[in-house]
Amino acid sequence: MARNVGPRPITPDQIIAIMNDAVRVLSARMPDEPEADIARTVYGVTTELVTTVTDPERLSSMLRLRTTARLQARSGNPVPIRRS
Predict the structure, then answer these.
(1) Is residue 77 part of a domain?
(2) CA–CA distances in Å: residue 81 to residues 11, 27, 57, 78
(3) Is the per-residue pLDDT at 21 higher than 80?
């Protein structure tokens, strides 16, 4: 009898690699932003997304998008999140 199996969760190692990559990419894109602030924001956004996103590529793109929006909003330059 076949069981209903949902999507596999992202492994902790994948999550850490995605977070490290996001910090690296966003630090290069936002050189004026302290890396510690970027890392802290990436961690916060990751804790929100990891419970609902099961695809590593989607997690990566959503993580960078939301982190960028939060950092820019905090600096007084809000960016709406919407599809292109």
Answers:
(1) no
(2) 27, 20, 18, 9
(3) yes
